[in-house]
């Protein structure tokens, strides 16, 4: 039996935000334009299956800030 390390597929996103109204969530704009979100804690590799749809206003118009580029690696994300 071979012991190969399986590389997990990274979730590709256009952008990400933290919003003050949802302090324990991270919001993502997917490459197809959909907005999704997930819990921000604990820091882990985010799987696409755990992302939930978000139907509110676009996060870039909300009160919050962009998710820093250096944080993408801690959540297993890749920016397109």
Description:
The chain has one domain (11-79). The strands form 2 sheets. It has a 5-stranded antiparallel sheet with strand order 5-4-3-2-6, with no helix packed on it. Strands 1-7 form a two-stranded parallel sheet. Helices cover 0% and strands 36% of the residues. The protein has 80 residues and is an all-beta fold. Strand 2 (15-19) and strand 3 form a beta hairpin. The chain is globular, with a radius of gyration of 14 Å. The protein has strands spanning 11-13, 15-19, 22-29, 35-39, 52-53, 64-66, 77-79.
Spell out the blueprint of helices and strands:
Elements lengths: L10 E3 L1 E5 L2 E8 L5 E5 L12 E2 L10 E3 L10 E3 L1
Q: Which series of helices and strands comes N to C? A: EEEEEEE
**Care to count the β-strands?**
7
Distance between the termini: 36 Å
Q: Write out the strand line-up for the largest beta sheet, numbering strands in chain order.
A: 5-4-3-2-6
What gross morphology would you assign?
Answer: globular
Number of domains: 1
Sheet with most strands: 5 strands, antiparallel
Task: Give the rounded overall mean pLDDT.
Answer: 89
Percent in helix: under 10%
**Global structural class:** mainly beta
Number of helices: 0
Q: What is the CA-atom radius of gyration, in angstroms?
A: 14 Å
Q: Uncertain runs with pLDDT below 50, 5 residues or more?
A: 1-5
What are the defining features of this structure?
globular, 0% helix, 5-stranded antiparallel beta sheet, mainly beta, two-stranded parallel ribbon
């Amino acid at each position: 039996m071979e012991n190969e390390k399986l590389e997990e597929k990274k979730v590709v996103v256009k952008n990400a935000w933290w919003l003050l109204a949802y302090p324990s969530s991270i919001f993502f704009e997917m490459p197809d334009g959909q907005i999704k979100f997930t819990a921000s804690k604990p820091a882990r590799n985010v799987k696409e299956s755990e992302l939930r749809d978000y139907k509110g206003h676009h996060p870039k118009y909300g009160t919050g800030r962009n998710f820093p580029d250096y944080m993408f690696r801690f959540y297993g994300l890749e920016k397109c």
